[in-house]
Amino acid sequence: MINSATSVWLGVTFVFVGAINVWLILQASARVRDAKASTRLIAAHRIGGYLFIALFCVMGYFMVARLGDASGGASPGTIIHLTLAMVLSPLLFFKVLVARYYKNYHSFLLPIGLVIFVLSFVLIGITAGPYLAHQTRIQTVSLAAIDLPPAAIDINLAAATMEKPVPNVTTWTASPELVKMPGVGWRQ
After folding, report:
1. Phi-psi region of 72 (alpha: psi -120 to 50; beta: other; left: phi over 0)
2. Structure-derived torsion over alpha carbons of residues 49, 50, 55, 61, reported in degrees to the nearest 10
3. How far apart are CA 12 and CA 14, in angstroms?
4. What is the model's pTM?
5. pLDDT digit string (tens) for 3-17?
6. Any idea where the domains of the chain sit in the sequence?
7. From the CB of residue 52, how many other CB atoms can be counted at a distance below 10 Å?
8. SS3 label, residue 132
9. Which of 124, 140, 137 is nearest to 9 (CA)?
10. What is the sign, positive or negative, of the torsion defined by CA atoms of 140, 146, 150, 151?
11. How confident is residue 177, by pLDDT bands cut at 50, 70 and 90?
12. 112-141: per-residue pLDDT in tens?
């Protein structure tokens, strides 16, 4: 089994390879007049595509193993993650199939590639984003760096203060005379 940090960095690499592939194919289509450059960019895109699929397969293998270890059912986040991966699988297969064997459907490749990239970004973002945000520690922020003295914060006092009602607060409500009725205008 693969630990969470390695899984996140594999996912970030996966999205990075996907972004490079999108850039490569867009550059290749922009350089249509320079056939040599376009051919090299398409070859690099093909290599990057197979690397992308290999990373997807490796991550899929470890994620299925991790899903098998989960007891008590999967969380909604896991279900969404699994659903995105299941949608991504046939799209990858279809794109390779069209690129290799069905050249007359060449116009589908760019939209399918963009959908694959967006799904991959979301697939990794919904798990890597919260993980990376959770790893950020408040200790990394130094008050001395911004010329503030050290501060002691009483969490219990702060919670109690937040729960107290605020005195002398006026609640504003709309007067019935000023309510506009739909289609009628101002009601008097």
Report:
1. left
2. 130
3. 5
4. 0.66
5. 878 888 898 999 999
6. 4-140, 155-186
7. 23
8. helix
9. 124
10. negative
11. low
12. 999 999 999 999 988 888 777 777 665 555
